[in-house]
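Hey,

Quick one before I head out. I ran the complex with heme C overnight. Inputs first:
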Amino acid sequence: MLLPLLTILIISACHKKDDPVVVEKQETIAFVKPANFPEPTYRLADNPVTTDGFALGKVLFYDGLLSRDGTISCASCHIQANAFTHHGHDVSHGIDDRLGTRNSPPIQNLAWSTSFFWDGGVHDLDLQPIAPIENPVEMDDKMNNVVDKLQRNNRYQQLFEKAFGSPGINSTRMLKALSQFMVVLVSADAKYDRYIAGKESFSDAEKRGLALFEQQCASCHRPPLFTDNSFRNNGVAPRPFGTDYGRYMITLREDDKLKFKVPSLRNIALTAPYMHDGRFGSLESVLNHYDNGFYNSPTLDPAFKNGLTLSADDKQDLIAFLKTLSDKGFITDPRFAPPPGFVQGN
Ligand code: HEC
Ligand code: HEC
């Protein structure tokens, strides 16, 4: 589905309260379905992406006002240069330097996700931001308080009116605007995509890596999204204390114990550390895990029951292939970049 191209006014986000709305530059934006992607699952018809809706969503995403003390924005843990992950942090790092328990996933291609979070605890992108806003170790505020703060802010009064065509700030509108920003974060122009389209060639190592990937990995990390949106146990050992049982914590079904959502591998070279708790610092250590490092348990995926053997060369070839999934255009796209005056913080 292709929505018509829209012209977007990127609006500068300063943190001061009553700044006038500054129109900084004009660019073109649209939600565009990449040719090799399936139809999106997000119901775009219920929340069509508009120029001003996207612009509002972006200002909200980069604004610390959504947190209790003004210091933590969505972008604190979702950084564009790292495909909107919190690079370098094993578990998320929120307000008052409090630590969470899980690694921050990328925000990319969410219009094709069927569930959110490592355990799939949220099914609707429009409800997802409530969790970080109200999480005491993330932004530690309350939705109604955030809405009050927005309502008292002249600049947001103008931005909401432009985005929705009538005055009024409420949580539904706020969440819809955040979704409009997030669904436009599409990553589909990596070297891999250009290779598939016949526009670029692969080195021998990349070709060997792709062949290995198709044999050993693609059943779960299925192209073009590099996930099949299922929950699996890939043999990551539970921690001795405070075991995260993943999907089980949502369904309470024994056979979901230690299963986590299969993460997309797009931009994977940019998003270390890896796994739901960020336990592996490099792709080498991930591949050492897959090279027979599996923790055996009743829910271990059948794909791994007989182990998996990767030679040192296989690992290098797989890494060469995984690096072809990096999308430089996505991580440097000025439409998604922090607004002027944005301070990254922790
Ligand atoms: C303190 C760090 C932190 C902040 C702030 C934060 N997030 Fe996250 N985000 C995370 C972590 C960690 C997860 C994974 C949580 C889990 O799986 O239980 C996550 C998951 C997500 C997901 C799900 C991605 C997926 O593929 O499952 C989305 C979407 C998201 N965050 C958007 C936001 C938005 C929007 C905001 C601001 C309102 C925000 N985040 C603020 C750390 C953060
Ligand atoms: C049976 C399904 C399955 C197969 C096959 C599989 N994976 Fe995974 N993979 C997963 C799951 C599930 C996770 C997340 C586990 C967790 O977070 O604890 C994961 C995580 C990863 C991660 C970390 C992603 C991140 O964002 O942290 C990488 C990298 C990875 N896999 C690469 C591979 C490679 C390379 C292969 C082939 C050698 C492979 N996987 C085969 C299911 C699978």
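The two ends are 39 Å apart (CA to CA).

Talk tomorrow,
K.
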